[in-house]
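Hey, can you fold this one?
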Amino acid sequence: MSRPAMLEAFDLGPAFSPAQTGPSEDWLDGHAAGFSEAQALQEQSDSALNDEIVAAVRQLAQNRAAIAKVQMVQLSQMFTALLETFLPPFAQEAIAPRVVGELMTMTEQELASPILLKASPNCTAALAAVLPPDMQSTVVCREDAALSDGQVLLAADEERRLVDMDKLTRETCSALQALNASLDKEAPDE
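Sure. Predicted structure:
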């Protein structure tokens, strides 16, 4: 027959008490202190990171503003160069339609005398050629060496009109140069 199994008896002794479960109070106090310290370090790190982000955003805004000013200066200088190059020829091309428009306005009024058109010797023939046929009998063209190629004087009775494309060109270029000067003062040093 078989014998029953003999099990060894274990004595739990006084060191173990069933009421004592979980970590000790010392361990819990250390854990709480460590957790608080980790939270404080994380808050400091977050604060430092936020400060760095704010500083970086401010720097980007300043850099963007500086770049925009430099670009404005360069663009205005480019536009000035373009206008100084192309505006005088365009003004020469536009003087004839402008003169015809002024003549049409003047012919709508009842004038006692014909309209006198004075222009520089270089422009008189070209202006006479673009006059509409119905105006050729009411407009007398004369050369005036005192006028530049961009100026035409229209006179009838007591009314006088000066079409001055040269002045328009000068004023446009000087306005752009003034803009350039003001932008140059505002532009940051490179």
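The longest strand covers residues 151-156. Let me know if you want another pass with a different chain boundary.
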